[in-house]
Design brief:
The structure holds 2 protein chains of 2 kinds.
Chain A: H1 7-12, H2 34-62, H3 73-107, H4 116-134, H5 166-194, H6 207-238, H7 252-286, H8 293-306, H9 322-334, H10 336-350, H11 359-382, H12 384-390, H13 394-424, E1 426-427, H14 430-448, H15 451-457, H16 471-501, E2 503-504
Antiparallel strand pairs in A: 1-2
Chain B: H1 3-20, H2 23-55, H3 70-94, H4 98-104
Helix pairs in contact in B: 3-4
Classes of the chains: A mainly alpha, B mainly alpha.
């Protein structure tokens, strides 16, 4: 009887199926491994982020002078429409789905997502839908010019009278990305409900997983409303129905209801995973357990519930009856309660902690500070009198960019830096990371802070030319915009060079406490040799109990002793 | 095929079997979640139609006087019976009786 060496199996286990490429080429295959798909999501959406940022910088270049001289007004309309659509549908949603894809199965001790092939399909729809939307630049009439919300009757104008026009391509592209999001949401919800490791009860599940679950539940109940509204808009545009066409008896306001019933909760879809990232990053770098972990976890789900009844605050100026304004003002302000609970928990987490100001920690702290500011201007906008005053001005633009860039993009950066050693096994360059943080934080303040005084002075949004009295703040904002464009360069340099030749730092460089740090970096295909048996809750900093009762990967030795049971005792 | 690869495929099969243990349960759960989500699309269609129908006095396009029912009724019957036929064909395919499957498909 021959002894066959078991060594080659170790190598083959690094691949999803025998013969699959085990190097960088696997990121260009139709892989079903959740970690490959996660990185595919992150990189693809980052490319769209750069495209959307380019649109933004052309707009800021246009707004340096009061006259519309750099680009034509119709081009400007197309630019802000495409900027908003690309940034939301092809950057923020997909990148967070990517981070969730990578981290959720690792954090709950699963070997993969519940439906790996469905996962791959929902990823590959993103580049297809993105290219479809970009292709509208090449057709006669150019892209949609009706803004990312595509309100009728503007979106129903169709000046070229072609069947294939920018608006139709926009609707189709949004519908495809919606299908992708729904499939992703089904996948996440099933994974989190059914595939948690033995012993991982709900209150042993990390806050990031809670927040991803809360966000994906919003996708499930909200997104169909946008899809339904978009299909009716498409029928109005192509088949001659009149759901939203006022001259044939339709009601354009109904579209606004359909749109915002999804698109306001969509903001929570984007911000909740970022809250989860904050909740994961802060305890690791402050060496303290997450303060009020259970309350922070449950407050995510409370936001899911409240967010289903806030959407009319976008329509205070859309002939909304007074009782409706009052009701939705109250519900909007209610969102501040769970968000405030979270901020309180984060501040209490770092209070008295042993802080390490690494790049992810800096981004998390910066993101939280921006979130507090954005939340306060959000309260302003939620109150009916102020909202009517600043409706459709730059105040609104400043507010939601503080949410989306100041809090969400900063949080995404924090997450990418924090889990970069897990994804690649190598450490990013700290100096470049800090440079990136400074540029991003200063740029964010420079570009989005001036928008608030501009809005209070009365500058309307979505204009290519403006009164000369607004010139000063617009120049400041444009400088900030170019600074933000510049800030992506150290990030790209950092990520690419660190992935190629960064310092190898082992499996748990942060000495973090969590299931994802119990496997190798980068994790092997099935994540764990045997499923971990969880015996205590997350964030056990300063506690002596181990996280698991078995050793999920027996051939890996370099873990902190507090994570796994010690053999001697 | 080399011996290593054969062994690796055996290991792989064992791992997959362990995983597929609960796959049927996952599929059922996921499909129910998907159906709940899809029902919201139809809810939004019904809401849109109801609002349109109740607030618009004369919503017929020009030259149309009433709602057609005959052709849509025939279409609906064809649609629903086709799903029944496909279901029967799928049952025959499941039992590997290909003749009956062919007659229904």
């Amino acid at each position: 009887m021959t002894n066959i060496s078991l060594e080659p199996i170790e190598i083959v286990r690094g691949q999803p199926y025998p013969g699959a490429p085990d190097n960088w080429k696997r990121f260009f295959t139709f892989s079903t491994d959740h970690k490959v798909i996660g990185i595919q999501y992150i990189v693809t959406s980052f490319i769209f982020f750069l495209v959307g940022g380019l649109f933004a910088m052309i707009m800021r270049g246009e707004l340096i002078t009061p006259e519309a001289d750099l680009v034509d007004r119709t081009v400007y309309n197309a630019l802000f429409t495409m900027h908003g659509s690309v940034m939301l549908f092809f950057w923020t949603f997909p990148v967070l789905v990517g981070l969730g894809n990578y981290l959720v199965p690792l954090m709950i001790g699963a070997r993969d997502m519940a439906f790996p092939r469905l996962n791959a399909v929902s990823f590959w729809m993103i580049p297809i839908a993105g290219i479809l939307m970009m292709s509208s630049f090449l057709i006669p009439g150019g892209p949609s010019q009706s803004g990312w919300w595509a309100y009728p009757p503007v979106s129903l104008q169709n000046p070229t009278n072609n069947l294939i026009n920018g608006q139709v391509l926009w609707i189709l592209s949004v519908a495809i990305s919606g299908v992708s999001s729904i499939m992703g949401a089904v996948n996440f919800v099933t994974t989190i409900f059914k595939m948690r490791a033995p012993g991982m009860t709900w209150f042993r599940t990390p806050a990031f997983v809670w927040s991803v679950l809360a966000a994906q539940l919003i996708q499930l109940y909200g997104l169909p409303s946008l899809t339904g509204g978009a299909i009716m808009l498409l029928l109005d545009l192509t088949a001659g129905t009149s759901f939203f066409t006022p001259e044939r008896g339709g009601n354009p306001i109904v579209y606004q209801h359909f749109f915002w019933f999804y698109s306001h909760p969509a903001v929570y879809v984007m911000v909740l995973p970022v809250f989860g990232i904050f909740s994961e990053v802060l305890p690791v770098h402050a060496r303290k357990p997450l303060f009020g972990y259970r309350v922070i976890a449950v407050s995510s789900v409370i936001i899911t519930v409240i967010s289903s009844a806030v959407w009319v605050h976008h329509m205070f100026a859309s002939a909304t009856p007074p009782w409706m304004r009052m009701f939705f003002m109250v519900t909007t302000m209610l969102v501040a309660v769970p968000s405030g609970i979270k901020v309180f928990g984060w501040v209490a987490t770092i209070w008295g902690g042993k802080m390490r100001f690494t790049t992810p920690m800096l981004f998390a702290l910066g993101g939280i500070s921006n979130w507090v500011f954005a939340g306060i201007t959000g309260i302003f906008l939620g109150s009916v009198p102020i909202d009517l005053h600043v409706h459709n001005t730059y105040f609104v633009v400043g507010h939601f960019h503080y949410v989306l860039y100041g809090a969400i993009v900063m949080g995404i950066y924090a997450g990418i830096y924090h889990w970069f050693p897990k994804m690649t096994g190598r450490m990013y360059y700290e100096g470049l990371g800090k440079l990136h943080f400074v540029l991003t934080y200063v740029g964010t303040a420079l570009i989005f802070l001036p928008m608030h005084p501009l809005g209070l002075m009365g500058m309307p949004r979505r204009v290519a030319s403006y009164d000369p009295e607004f010139a000063f703040w617009n120049v400041v904002a444009s400088i900030g915009g170019f600074l933000l464009g510049l800030s992506t360069l150290p990030f790209i340099l950092n990520m690419v060079s660190a992935w190629v030749r960064g310092e190898k730092v082992g499996n748990n460089p942060w000495r973090a406490y969590g299931l994802e740090w119990l496997t190798s970096s980068p994790p092997s295909v099935e994540n764990y040799e045997e499923l971990p048996l969880v015996i205590s809750g997350p964030y056990g900093y300063g506690r002596s109990e181990p996280l698991v009762s078995n050793v999920p990967n027996p051939d890996l030795t370099e873990f902190p002793e507090s994570l796994t049971p010690q053999k001697a005792s | 095929m080399t011996a290593e690869r054969a062994i690796s495929q055996d290991t792989e099969a064992a791992v997959r079997q362990h995983q597929e243990h609960d796959e049927a349960g996952n599929s059922k759960f996921g499909f129910i979640v998907f159906l709940l989500s899809e029902s919201v699309i139809f809810l939004s269609f019904f809401v849109g139609y109801t609002i349109f129908k109740t607030t618009t006095t004369d919503w017929y396009p020009e030259g149309v006087t009433g709602l057609e029912t005959r052709e849509p009724l025939i279409n609906t019957i064809v649609l629903i019976s086709s799903s029944f036929v496909i279901y029967v064909a799928e049952r025959y395919l499941h039992d590997k009786s290909f003749g009956a499957f062919g007659s229904f498909c």
